[in-house]
Amino acid sequence: MTAVENLKNYIEQAIENRKQGKEYPFIVFDKKKKEYAGCTRFYDIQLAYQYLQLGYTWYGKGFQGTYVNKNCKLLLLEFAFEKLGMERVEFRADNRNERSKLAMQSIGCVVEGVLRNHLPKIEGGRRASIVLSILKEEWFGGVKQNLTNKINENDMSR
């Protein structure tokens, strides 16, 4: 399957899962550059248990390691905890992906553990998935303020 076909399937799956109420995909648009930066989504939404996962996040190369991720996560976490009333937001990544793990920890996620042999890898074999989360009391107990401070520090350093 080509990269274009993979992307098309990825988008179609996100749209179909949104229609079924399973996921809520978001386009990430950088207002400063006036460009599309990537996408992300809420998934495994469990309203009865006040829980969801935040992931399937990717950014174009020009947006990786920039202010975009922290700003995006601030908005999404505010929405999850303050509008939807979630008690827990979970994040997962391939345990080999150091960049993702560092990014999640930098916004305030707590490492909970590793799911061994969790999912198949595109190149064959299976991957281990690291599980991280932010709880509602952590969000209001300092995570939100710390993330906001980091964003403001970055804005002032330019």
Explain briefly what this protein structure is.
This protein is of the alpha+beta class and 158 residues long.
* The top level CATH class name: Alpha Beta
How much of the sequence lies in strands comes to 35-45%
- Based on secondary structure, the structural category is alpha+beta
Q: Name the CATH homologous superfamily.
A: Gcn5-related N-acetyltransferase (GNAT)
**What's the alpha carbon Rg, rounded to whole Å?**
16 Å
The CATH architecture designation is 3-Layer(aba) Sandwich
| Terminal CA distance | 42 Å
* Tally of individual domains: 1
Helix content, binned percent? 40-55%
What form results from the Cα inertia axes?
globular
Give the topology string: H per helix, E per strand: HEEEHEHEEH
Q: What are the low-pLDDT stretches, counting only 5+ consecutive residues below 50?
A: none
The main sheet comes to: 6 strands, mixed
Q: Using DSSP, what is the number of strands?
A: 6
Spatial strand order of the main sheet? 1-2-3-4-6-5
Number of helices: 4
Write up what this structure looks like:
The chain is α+β, with helices and mostly antiparallel strands and 158 residues long. The chain has one domain: Gcn5-related N-acetyltransferase (GNAT) (Aminopeptidase, 3-Layer(aba) Sandwich). The chain is built from four helices and six strands, in the order H-E-E-E-H-E-H-E-E-H. It has helices at 3-19, 67-83, 98-106, 136-156, and strands at residues 24-30, 35-46, 51-59, 88-94, 110-120, 126-135. Strands 1-2-3-4-6-5 form a six-stranded mixed beta sheet, with helices on both faces. A hairpin with a 4-residue loop joins strand 2 and strand 3 (51-59). Helix 2 (67-83) runs antiparallel to helix 4 (136-156). The protein is globular and about 45 Å long. The relative contact order is 0.12. The mean pLDDT is 93.
